[in-house]
Amino acid sequence: xxxxxxxGAGYIGSHSVRLFLDKGHDVWVYDNLCFGHRLAVPADRLxxxxxxxxxxxxxxxxxxxxxxxVHFAAFTFVGESVQQPAxxxxxxxxxxxxxxxxxxxxxxxxxxxxxxxxxxGTPAAMPITEETPQQPINPYGASKLAVEHVLDDYAxxxxxxxxxxxxxxxxxxxxxxxxxEDHSPETHLIPLVIQAALGKRPHIEIFGDDYPTPDGTCVRxxxxxxxxxxxxxxxxxxxTPGAVFKYNLxxxxxxxxxxxxxxxxxxxxxxxxxxxxxxxxxxxPTLVASSEKIQQDLGWKPAYTDLKAIVETAWKWHxxxxxxxxx
Length: 327
Description:
Blueprint: E1 2-6, H1 11-22, E2 26-31, E3 46-48, H2 54-63, E4 68-71, H3 78-83, H4 85-106, E5 110-116, H5 139-158, E6 161-167, E7 169-171, H6 189-197, E8 204-207, E9 219-220, E10 222-224, H7 225-238, E11 244-249, E12 255-256, H8 257-268, E13 274-277, E14 286-287, H9 292-298, H10 307-320, E15 322-325
Helix pairs in contact: 1-7, 2-4, 4-5, 6-8, 6-10, 8-10
């Protein structure tokens, strides 16, 4: 296939691009480099442009005879979405509708959407399945859910085939150590703990240690970024006109904040300074996904089901790139 990957120079996007290329697909990356990195993708595959530029987008789709689009480009900071909702609705929803309309004009009917577990808000029961009510509690999650609703309508009216993949805590790095996680600011737990182990942060702060969990800290489902990429490729290859796929992606078990810290210490051989802070508003005690549906339907199975193996790949990336891609 000839695939356009929006936001393909970002964390999950770049790992997906690498897999698609490895599998023989013709891939183009469309990224404004707001958060993406030039060095994360092949230079001859990168188109630096913004989704707001619909004329450029139309031209790219037509010129490269694109068959399918995988859409990662979005803003993802929950706190910022509360403070600046207009930014999130414009980028995450309006720009996605622009993209879908460009696809319609060019007759492109395959679309994979990077959704999120944030569409579920604070579920009453675990694990989270595809039948769990979607009740987002912030504009970020709401903007992603709104796109899912748009996709439902487009599938019915325009025969669009799509997959919405709702994933939990993306983590790890490519096992080669060539590409990995480099956010600014960094908000994900595993790289934050690794940075503390490296002395790049004075400590790691645990936001609350009195939750109703085995060790009092929040429990999350960590899924390796390459397993996410594999799910996107499987979904892309299965999509037919008008088909609707919606799947949760996780490993089906959770690890607490303390377990993550202990695992990083074990992998790095370094002590991580810890500070206990107050709870953050809106942090559920436990978030764990059931990914049985995509395993049954598409045969997807995570290769990384152990936290230590995930952390080892992240550590290899950080060792080789102490300043991220600037290294």
